[in-house]
Every structure is written in C-alpha cells, then in structure tokens.
Amino acid sequence: MRYILAEAIKIISVIILIVVLLGLKWNLGLIMFVSSVFLGILFQQGFYELATNLYLAIIDYTTLQLIGIIVLVYILSSILIRTKSMEGIEKSLQNIVSDYRLIVFFIASFLGLIPMPAGAMFSAPLLKEIGVKNNMSSEEIMFFNYWFRHIWEFVWPLIPGVLLYTSVTGLDIRQVMIFQSPLVFIALIIGLLWMYLSLKRKKNNEINSESPGQQWLLLFKSIWSILFIIFLVLFIKINLLIALTVTTIMLLIIYREILLPKLKEIIFYDISFKVVFLVVGIMFFKQVLENTNSMEQISLLFSALGINIWVILFFIPF
Hints:
- The protein is an all-alpha fold.
- Helix content is 78%, strand content 0%.
- The chain is built from 17 helices and no strands.
- The longest helix is centred in the middle third of the chain and has 26 residues, at 173-198.
C-alpha cells in the first residue's frame, strides 16, 4: 500500500505542476513537454529514455496523422474565409429563411463545424448584422453565438480536442460520435428553447431580386466542402485525413487564381503551429505515461481505497 501511495503521489505532483503552470499562463504545449520530463525524472528515467520516448511519440502513426489533420483543418478554414464562402452563407440564408432566429442558429452552429483560431470572433460580425436588424442585445448575440458554435464539441471529428481524445483512447471516431451524440441533442434543445423563449419573432421584410433557386445554389456553393467531408467520413467511411486532403486539393484547384498566390501566406500565417506543438507535447506525455506504467498505480490506489468507479470517472476528467 505504501509503495502504491508513493507512486500515486508522483502522478498527483505532476498534475499539480500542470495546474500551476496553466495558472502562470505558460504555453500549453511547453507545459506538456515540461510535465513529461518531470514525470520521467520522478520515475527514474534518464536522458536517453526520455529522448527515446519523445522520438517514439513524434514518429508514431497517430501523432503524424493527427498533425496532418489539424494542419489541413487550418488550411481549410483559411480557404473558406479567403474565398468569402462564409459571407455567402449569411447572404443566402437571409433570403431563404423568414425567421431570423433560425438564421442565427444556422450560422453559429454551421461555423462551429469549422474549427479556427478565434472562431467565435469570426462568426460574431455576421450574427451582429442580423441581430442589430432584429433588436437583439449585444449579450443575446454573444450568448447564442457562443452556445450554438459549441454544441458539436462532443462529437465533431474536425475539432482538435475530439481528435486528441480519440487518439489517446484508441477509440474509433464514429464510435465516439454515436455514443456522445445525445449530448449534442441535449445542448441543441436547451439552446433552441432558450432562444425561442427569450427572442421574439420578427418577419424578414427584405426584398430580394434573385429567385429562391439562386439563393439555394449560393448556399450550396458556400457549404459544399463541409458537406463533402461529412459525406466521405460518415457514409463512405474514408479516413478523415484523406477526406480533408481530397477536399483541400479540390478547393485549391477550383479557386487557384485566388489561393495559389496566397499559399505561402496561408501556410505560414494561418496554420497554428502552437497547436501542432501541443499535439506533440500531449503524445510525448502519453508515451512517458505508458512507458512508466504510472497510471496503473493511480488505478491500484483507487481500488485499494475502495472508491466508487463512478466517482473516479467524474473526478479525473473534471
């Protein structure tokens, strides 16, 4: 029991270190690297063993695939912004849907499918234009923008957190999407109920010269790339990395006159290399955890103390 307790204290001290460094606002990727080294030292790993763990983490297929997916997600987000696809969504919806509340919901939730740095700030101006026209307060615009953007956080395979979760646990992405989908529906229902109870309906009086068919075509042209990825991953069951690669190449070909001159800018300015560094740091930490068998000691300690499994399942993620 004493041995198990001593080993568990080592893990707990690493967790405390992570929390302290987060409080000091260190870069999260750097925190994971420092914590990995600290964990290895506590479990008496030398420089060679730590370097080997880092090397194995970097060359691991899961790590390389994850980095590829995240890089392509950032490139895809940049392409959609630079080709003004997002503006097309707003313009077409305002002429298709009469209830502005549905437009607010669709824009916020659809843009939530496209992870990007400061994404809420990107969708906010689109919603602000609609909200101001319909007497929504700034607080209401902010709330519904934030809420509906994040309803997909439990399941959507393009969100880095979901990708990391499935990579670390080894679960199939479709499995995760199926089992966690009830959480999406709960968040969706709560958000829509709150919206319809707090916002009054106002008829859209804008007159548009274009036909409904032209508006639907504009909407489809704006969102087809995301729909195509969904189709490839969920129905054709193609690997997400391949689906993103195919879609990105298609967009680069279609919009080559706009994108090719900006390709260097997209790669060096629009990709968040901090997130790539974070992925390597997390996979390094995972590799050290597995190599030292340290998490087994936590399980043994909880078992020895007779702690209920449901308490453990809540407490550790929390």
